[in-house]
Design brief:
By secondary structure, the protein is of the alpha+beta class. It contains 4 helices and 6 strands, in the order ααββαββββα. α1 packs antiparallel against α2. It comes from Novosphingobium nitrogenifigens DSM 19370.
């Protein structure tokens, strides 16, 4: 699990899509703060996390707290996008090989959720 978490932090520093693809398990699940149903499968999770990296991955993004318990990690982040301060949590469960098995994002306040929804929708358009 520690290797998976370290790899996640490396990805966040450089947004290396190849590294991210290696980090996601085939049967991974992504839980979006704005999409009702879980997004299942490596390709789906990869597309959502890649889009999130484009939306949130700017110079203001930083983790402010990290809690680790076995295969689970809770990473609290803060970022500013288009003048909106976004506070969120990445809740990640890793499998025995250190790959992402389950990824849940929670965001606050409502203004931030609306901004993320708007920008993620634009990124995920076909």
């Amino acid at each position: 699990m520690q290797l998976g978490l370290a790899a996640w932090h490396r990805y966040m520093l450089g947004n290396d899509t190849d590294l991210l693809a290696e980090l996601i398990a085939e049967d991974a699940v992504f839980h979006s703060p704005v999409v009702h149903t879980p997004q299942e499968g490596k390709e789906r999770v990869l597309s959502y996390l890649t889009a999130a990296g484009k939306v949130l991955g700017n110079e203001t993004f930083h983790y402010v707290r990290e809690l680790v318990d076995g295969p689970e990690a809770m990473l609290e982040f803060v970022v500013e996008v288009d003048g909106v301060t976004i506070n969120g949590i990445d809740l990640i469960r890793f499998d025995l090989e250190g790959r992402i098995q389950d990824f849940k994002v929670m965001i606050r306040p409502l203004k931030a959720i609306n901004k993320v929804w708007e920008l993620m929708a634009a990124q995920l358009q076909p």
